[in-house]
Amino acid sequence: xxxxxxxxxxxxxxxxxxxxxxxxxxxxxxxxxxxxxxxxxxxxxxxxxxxxxxxxxxxxxxxxxxxxxxxxxxxxxxxxxxxxxxxxxxxxxxxxxxxxxxxxxxxxxxxxxxxxxxxxxxxxxxxxxxxxxxxxxxxxxxxxxxxxxxxxxxxxxxxxxxxxxxxxxxxxxxxxxxxxxxxxxxxxxxxxxxxxxxxxxxxxxxxxxxxxxxxxxxxxxxxxxxxxxxxxxxxxxxxxxxxxxxxxxxxxxxxxxxxxxxxxxxxxxxxxxxxxxxxxxxxxxxxxxxxxxxxxxxxxxxxxxxxxxxxxxxxxxxxxxxxxxxxxxxxxxxxxxxxxxxxxxxxxxxxxxxxxxxxxxxxxxxxxxxxxxxxxxxxxxxxxxxxxxxxxxxxxxxxxxxxxxxxxxxxxxxxxxxxxxxxxxxxxxxxxxxxxxxxxxxxxxxxxxxxxxxxxxxxxxxxxxxxxxxxxxxxxxxxxxxxxxxxxxxxxxxxxxxxxxxxxxxxxxxxxxxxxxxxxxxxxxxxxxxxxxxxxxxxxxxxxxxxxxxxxxxxxxxxxxxxxxxxxxxxxxxxxxxxxxxxxxxxxxxxxxxxxxxxxxxxxxxxxxxxxxxxxxxxxxx
Length: 622
Description:
The chain is α/β, with parallel strands linked by helices. It has three domains: about 5-240, 3-Layer(aba) Sandwich (Rossmann fold); about 260-345 and about 525-615, Rossmann fold (3-Layer(aba) Sandwich); about 380-465, no CATH class. It has a seven-stranded mixed β-sheet, with helices on both faces. A six-stranded mixed β-sheet has the order 6-9-10-3-11-12, sandwiched between helices. A hairpin with a 2-residue loop joins strand 11 (about 210-215) and strand 12 (about 220-225). The chain is globular and about 95 Å long. The two termini are about 50 Å apart. The relative contact order is 0.11.
């Protein structure tokens, strides 16, 4: 429970990035044993403030005090040694290492010069028992569910004697059961005197676990509240600066023709365990089909098979009447299918690419983004391409010629036992000459490919940055940069993606803005089939409201929507029909309006569909 002792203070913190004032005279205090919820929209400055406290960023002005002493952290290591631990939204764990190895990394227990793995495992086990964080020290990280991995992150902080724990979006990837387990852990830590800053967008969670709430907007603290005196609606209005509709308003669905047909689909997961078992369903134009289930029951593998990211073992997938079973991702995309992946960083964007480039990742090869040169510019482009290509090929060929003369040819001769070419017979030289011929053809093809690729890159670089860029449309052999940038500017405005410019790397955006970038790209294409996996994961209530409205708009425009979400409220609010998955099977198909939350929960937990749905004629067992 919180006490009057202040363990952490942020005083007038300011932080400026190019084009963005992330923190504007922010003041924040944290008491011993307190769970402080920090709310705010994406880009409100929450993560920037936490990164300053943790030593990842340095404030332009202001001060940080820990237990009354002013500190300046040069690195996270100094923050850790001052008793501050941080669990990032994207875990900082090494997948192939054990729990114990990850926990002690950088603070290893040694016996002489050797790592004492027995003692490390003992200390990890002791911590997990002390704080009710049950986890096996010898388990491999990549084999653990997400909830267990989060426990490892918390143990890693406690192992370093953290008295202040920062949790950045800790429930974004957890199942409802794992969320409850996390809240029990947080309350237990609070009772033991650990102070926690809890960053989240989920208002119900804040009201359930926090002692005090602070809200940020536009880089400033705009208010604070106590959970007992707050409602989700009042907190949402404080976050966004306007009234937010927390309920989805939609008309009744008018489903038409079948867009997606899945029949007897089976597949294995990464560990070669059965993940899908003869799954069958269909999605029609003008409806939202929700997929409910506890994370890890085959939803991820289902989406991956449908979108070409995983091969199915058997069964059939048809989109718009076309058989696309085990088709490539590009073939699926070309069939007017949009895909919002659940892991935006692995499958949703390329961190080093700009915002504008990420917004055309699945259409960069189509007009108007791929613009061939006009007849007027064709001679210039041909020269721009041919000259560097020939020059690069000639330089590489000359280099290879020297390598061939000094190294390769003598080696070939030695393989045939020839020491004197002049004295060797014609028959003896047939083998070396044949190898030389094959080698010349292969090397010429390789060098030609390399020269062409480099020439393509050079033409695009010149077309974008050359002296003619400001006078003529910046169109190269691959990108029409004018069209790409104009497209990006429109989507950035429409979907409120908080970025200094469309030339900013996508990986530098906040997690919520990365999600909005992916959603903007997929929704902006107006697909006939939209597969949305966790579309609102890690984003604020205002953005959730907007994305929910867009999903309904896509449905009303005639799209077939397959919605996969770990948020049961989201499934029930948006879906017209719901299929429930358990252990890789569809155990029930129900009309969204004919089933209760409690019934869905029972089905998700593996209860028999006939028993749960007996009184619901609009629901049926699969």
